[in-house]
Amino acid sequence: MKIAVLPGDGIGPEIVAQAVKVLKALASDGMKIELEQAHIGGAGYDAAGDPLPEATMKLAQDSDAVLLGAVGGWQYDTLPRPMRPEQGLLRIRKGMGVFANLRPALLYPELASASTLKPEVVSGLDIMIVRELTGDIYFGQPRGIQLNENGEREGINTMRYSESEIRRIAKVGYEIAMKRNRKLCSVDKANVLETTELWREIVTVMNKDYPDVELSHMYVDNAAMQLVRAPKQFDVMITGNIFGDILSDEASMLTGSIGMLPSASLDACNKGLYEPSHGSAPDIAGQDIANPLATILSAAMMLRYTFNNEESATRVENAVKKVLAQGYRTVDIYTEGTRKTSCSEMGDAVVKNL
Ligand code: NAD
Question: What residue owns the CA closest to ligand 1's atom 32?
C-alpha cells in the first residue's frame, strides 16, 4: 500500500504527522505500508514555484492513496491566481480523477455540547454527504472577467454537468446508501437551473437500479434550512460541487468542530485523496494546538475505502472514540472538566488506544 503524504501549509504538517504516527503504529503490527512525502500548496510554491509541483502529481499518480493536510496562507493571497495554494488542491483532484467527495457528519456523544444546536436536535446524528468534485460552476467554461457591451466589467462562471458526470456520482450515492440506511436525498435547484433539472431526471431514472433505496429530492435552499431544523432526517445526501461545498461545511458545524471531520475523494476504482474537511488554520499554525482527529479519521477512511481494510479502519475509529471518552480534548473541543490536550499529545493518545 503506497501512500503519498502531502502535509501542505499552516497546521497541515502538524496534523498529518499525527495521522502518520497512527499509520506507522498499524504498520508495526504487520500492516504493509510505504509512505512518501511531497510538497503541495504554498509549500509547493515555495519549494518549486508551483502549488502542485510535477513531482508531487507524479507521486500521487503512482500511489494508491494520498493523505493531505491542508493548503493556504495569507502570505500567498496576493499571488496570481494560478500560483495560489488552492489551485494545487483543485489540480490534484482533477489530475487524480477523483470526482466523489465523501464527507461524513457524525456527532460523537461526548461532544454533543460542542454543537450550537440543541442536543436533542443533533444527538445520534450520522449523515454522509456525497459531493461531486470535478464539475459544476467551479470548472465550467466560459469563465472570467470581461468588458461587456456597455464597457462595464462583468464576471462570468458557467454551471455545467454532463449526463455521464451525473450518473457516476449518483452511482456512488446509491451504493453508499445501500451500505447505510438506504435513504438518499438528492439536492438540486431544479426549479431554477436547467443543469440541475437534468441532474434530478437522471438520479430519478437510476432509482430503478436501486429499488431498495428510498430516494427524495430537495431544493438546496430547503436543504440548508432542514440541516439546521431537523438534520437527523438525512442519511446520505448527493449534490453537485458548489451546493456540496456549502452544505458539507454547514453539516460539519452541526457536530461542533470542523477539527473532527474527515473526508475522502474517490475515483472510479476507489483510489483516493484523503484530507480533513477544514483548511490550513493559519491563525493557530505552529502552536501544536490544532485538532488532528479529522486527519486521523481521514486515514481511517483511507483504510476502509481504498485498502478495503475494514478491521484497521474500525480500530482507528474506536481508538478515537476511546480518547474522547477518556476526556482528551484539543482547544477547539475543550470544555470545563476535560483534559486540555495538544495536537501531538492527541496523536499519542490515539496510538496508545489502538
Ligand atoms: P480554516 O478551516 O482553515 O479555519 C477556520 C477556523 O477553524 C479557524 O479559526 C481555525 O483556527 C479553525 N480550525 C480549522 N481547523 C482546525 C483544527 N484542526 N483544529 C482546531 N481548529 C481548527 O478556514 P479559513 O480560515 O477560512 O481558511 C484558512 C486557509 O485555509 C485559507 O488560505 C483557505 O484558502 C484555506 N483552506 C484550505 C482548505 C483545504 O486545504 N482543503 C479548505 C478550506 C480553506
Answer: 72
Give the tens place of pLDDT for each residue, 154-210: 999 999 999 999 999 999 999 999 988 999 999 999 999 999 999 999 999 999 999
The residues of the chain scoring below 50 in pLDDT are none
Active-site residue, 328 included: no
The catalytic residue among 188, 189, 210, 271 is: 189
Is 138 catalytic? The answer is yes
Structural domains in the chain?
1-99+267-354 (3.40.718.10), 110-260 (3.40.718.10)
How many CA atoms does the CB half-sphere of 353 hold within 13 Å? 22
- State whether the beta carbon of 320 lies less than 6 angstroms from ligand 1: no
Known catalytic residue at 305: no
84 in contact with ligand 1, CB cutoff 6 A: no
The pLDDT value recorded for residue 9 is: 98
What pLDDT is attached to residue 96? 94
Residue type, 299: A
Question: Could you tell me which of 312, 311, 283, 277 has the C-alpha nearest to residue 295?
Answer: 277
Q: Kindly report the protein residue whose alpha carbon is nearest to atom 13 of ligand 1.
A: 281
Per-residue pLDDT, 123: 86
**Gap from CA of 279 to ligand 1 centroid (Å):** 3
Q: What is the pLDDT of residue 55?
A: 98
Ligand 1, pocket-test mutation among 263, 278, 320, 333, most atoms within 8 A of CB: 278
> For position 110, what pLDDT does the model report?
85
